[in-house]
Amino acid sequence: MRKFGWPMLGLSMAVAMPCDAAAQESDTEEQAYEPDITIRSRWEDNPAHGSDGDRLLRRASAGRFGYVYLREVPIPPMLVPDMGERDVMVWLDVDLNSAGNVTACTGDRLEYYYPQERRFEDAPALPAELAEEACGLSRNHSGFRPALDQQGSPVSSTASARVEYSWRRPLTGPPPAPNPPDSWVPSVPNRYMFDYRDYHRWVSVNRPDGSQFLEEDRTRPRRAEVDLVISADAQGAITECTISTPSGIADYDNASCPALEAAGVELVQSVRDFTRILRNFPVRVRWNRTKMQVVMPGKPVGPMIIGDLTLDPALTAGIDISEVARGRAELTISSNGELSFCEISESTGHDYLDLLTCRHFAQGLRYSQPINAFGDAAEGRISASVDWNRQQIYVRY
User: Fold this and answer.
1) Which helix (H) or strand (E) holds 351?
2) Which residues are CB-neighbours of 324 under 8 A, at least 6 positions away?
3) H or E stretch at 140
4) d(C-alpha 27, C-alpha 16), whole Å
């Protein structure tokens, strides 16, 4: 963290500065930007399977948290004219050995980011010299953490990495205000409302006419259900429709989205400006021959861990964990409430503890059955943090 000193304000500040001092201050302002180079390679962007096709216990990543800051590394001269107004991002494809060292690296593409406008822009081509420069940084400074197989052994793997070149201006102005007292709790609106019943008073789906999109066929099964995910604009026109769970009957599956798009949806007048309400909105279409019924979603119930969330100290008996050993695991819970897979998304910093984390979730805990928004048993996910120093599991439901 940078620390900045602030001059004492007094009468002496009114004295005119010499020309040399003014010029020196001007040069300081021009040099206010400082180089900032980051290598990012997040676990979710990298392959989940090893070279043998088996699922990995932990995917490869840059450092423990998916990024590595490079200190005192200069911006390449070829990029200096571009810096200040936009950031330069070089995407790479790298091969890693079991020690996390880069054995091969190729440039993928070049991308620009404009911080003031908060937008990305694809560059026409990635110069070979810039790709080699970025590959050199990934070989010498990346600090990749290798992938682990299901037995907890490091294995070779591939990864997608991004080298970000940017210039950041140090903070100017007065120091930040002091923190509020501990008893003060800010009011934060809940932006992630999973109870879809709240939407029923704002959104209604017009009843589609299935006979316009499906011909009568007595040989076809009479009933079917198709789950869809839709998005709509402020006028109620469906802009995107995809099948999340097909019925297995091609005629019903192929007709569901066109019929729903033709019918559209209606939004209450007071919320028509809030088009984010219908982003990836689930609906179910029930077919009875050529008749359609649209079912609105209810409240899904995600899986929960049943039992004590305290870790048994005997699990780490004889293991030196004097350093910080906190990690995160992504748990996949099957429709019958059993753990079907565990993957480390944030390493504890110790390969053995990463393996022990997933073993504990597989052998020492039970889980509730996930229920989707339409009342059916479904697959669910749990993101759990594990603190081996405090022997505690933290889950945010």
Assistant:
1) helix 351-363
2) 349, 389
3) helix 128-141
4) 18
Q: What six digits make up the tokens of 376? A: 């059916």
Closest CA to 213 of 270, 157, 259: 259
Which domains can be identified in the chain, with CATH numbers? 32-168 (no CATH), 196-295 (3.30.2420), 305-395 (3.30.2420)
Which of 128-137, 291-300, 309-318 is predicted least confidently?
A: 309-318
In 151-299, beta strands by DSSP E: 154-155, 157-168, 203-205, 223-232, 238-245, 265-267, 281-288, 291-295
**Which of 273, 268, 287, 284 has its CA nearest to residue 374?**
284
pLDDT in tens, 20-76: 444 444 444 444 456 788 999 888 889 999 888 899 999 999 988 888 888 778 888
The candidate with the shortest Cα–Cα distance to 39, out of 123, 105, 83, 125, is 105
* 134: three-class secondary structure by DSSP: helix
CA angle 236, 270, 186 (to 5 degrees): 115
Q: How far apart are CA 3 and CA 22, in angstroms?
A: 24
Give the other-Cβ count within 10 Å of 392's Cβ: 13
